[in-house]
Amino acid sequence: GVLSKLWDFRNCVIPSTQALTSNLEHVGFQHLRFNSNSIIIPKDMSLDFGGIGKEYAVDCAVSICKSHGIQNGIIDLGGDLHIIGPQPDGRPWSIGVRNPRATEKAIAELAIAQGGLSTSGDYERYFEHSGKRYCHLLLPQTGMPVSYWASISVVAPSCLLAGTLSTIAMLKQSDARIWLDDQEIQYLGILPDLTIIQRNGDG
């Protein structure tokens, strides 16, 4: 939370190294204290739940649909999806993955019969300065944006889990592929040069 407040993506302002360094000491779950029903946050620290709110809402909407007997369909909230079940004839849905450098177009398609799909990328909130792209996904070690991947899409049992895994993978940068393979889930990663790296999640 404290790092995201330093970055002004609307006005394309890069925070100073000193500002980032001085705020890194307020980053990390090791600073939180937990008891049975609350979290105690130091006064100079804040939490940003922007990366899980929509995904949680999508899963809640799916639960409501299922409680009313809906067995086929897709819930889509701003690109975070949960596929309730396959098409009525049993075929999986064909879901387009956005091209991170031409976002009005799809660069690939994923066949999904059920589960959550979420994409994390460097193309929603970003700015470019001196030929370099700065996105809103910030590394907790340095306070600087990620740069290794253009986007990572993950398919998981829930949209919340898919969103969590895709964001963590972006933060893992060059280590993401090995980490995602260990999760044994379906994913599609796109590098800045638009190279596609894909795993079908079949083990």
Give an overview of the whole structure:
By secondary structure, the chain is of the alpha+beta class. It is 25% helix and 31% strand. It contains five helices and twelve strands. The chain has helices spanning 2-6, 17-24, 53-67, 159-172, 176-183; strands at 33-34, 39-40, 73-77, 80-85, 93-99, 102-112, 115-121, 126-129, 132-135, 151-156, 186-190, 196-199. The strands form four sheets. The protein has a six-stranded antiparallel β-sheet with strand order 3-4-7-10-11-12. The protein has a two-stranded antiparallel ribbon with strand order 1-2. β11 and β12 form a beta hairpin. The longest helix has 15 residues, at 53-67.
Number of E-state strands: 12
Structural class: alpha+beta
Sheet with the most strands, sense and barrel status: 6 strands, antiparallel
Determine the mean pLDDT: 94
Keywords:
5 helices, two-stranded antiparallel sheet, 203 residues, alpha+beta
Topology:
Blueprint: H1 2-6, H2 17-24, E1 33-34, E2 39-40, H3 53-67, E3 73-77, E4 80-85, E5 93-99, E6 102-112, E7 115-121, E8 126-129, E9 132-135, E10 151-156, H4 159-172, H5 176-183, E11 186-190, E12 196-199
Antiparallel strand pairs: 1-2, 3-4, 4-7, 5-6, 7-10, 8-9, 10-11, 11-12
